């Protein structure tokens, strides 16, 4: 376990990934997450709305994955998992993801946790899950985690617009292609061939420096 992955927990936004049926998954946005104990078996608490399908799926499966969203996450991701129900749609079909020990994790996440439910308490509107963190890993995404306050201030309206467009077109936004910039002259590669697949002797068309000095644009 990489304990530094736990440092990215905050009052932010997260996506739960949980088994629905064989080969199918449910999930939702959650914000009430906190690590409450450390040691060899760190403990996390998560509050989930009782009327969400994800709540029932967590109780049934007894485990889930938690994707820590980056501050620069596409607003559609928040809309996809927060503005519709897994009873009606396959949310995971709309976003790039990978399976970690059989559970879905967003490819854009800055870190992810795999959690085993120890017990849960029922309140009027939410269930409080007390969980052991079985695994926690950073993904290599160096962006800062998305804070709830930043979402409310800077992203909520954009998420609404992204969801509106999705409902109109029936298609999620196309995955953005990574860009690479020459640090010498500022040229940004935007060709059809992925930058990683260019020949090793490829050079900047403006100043001639090699491919190896190009920097990925975050």
Describe it.
With 218 residues, the protein is of the alpha+beta class. It has two domains: 167 residues, Pnp Oxidase, Chain A (Roll); 39 residues, Rubrerythrin, domain 2 (Single Sheet), CATH 2.20.28. It is 18% helix and 34% strand. It has a seven-stranded antiparallel sheet. Strand 6 and strand 7 form a beta hairpin. Helix 2 packs across helix 3. The radius of gyration is 19 Å and the shape is globular. The two termini are 27 Å apart.
Number of strands: 12
User: Sheet bearing the most strands, described?
Assistant: 7 strands, antiparallel
Give me the CATH architecture of the largest domain, please: Roll
Instruction: Tell me the number of structural domains.
Output: 2
Report the top-level CATH class of the largest domain.
Answer: Mainly Beta
| Helical percentage | 10-25%
What's the quick description here?
This protein has 218 residues and is of the alpha+beta class.
How are the SSEs placed, and which strands pair?
Elements: E1 14-21, E2 24-30, E3 33-37, E4 43-49, H1 53-61, E5 63-68, H2 75-82, E6 97-100, E7 103-106, E8 111-122, E9 126-138, H3 148-169, E10 179-181, E11 188-189, E12 215-217
Antiparallel strand pairs: 1-2, 1-5, 3-4, 4-9, 5-8, 6-7, 8-9, 10-11, 10-12
Helix pairs in contact: 2-3
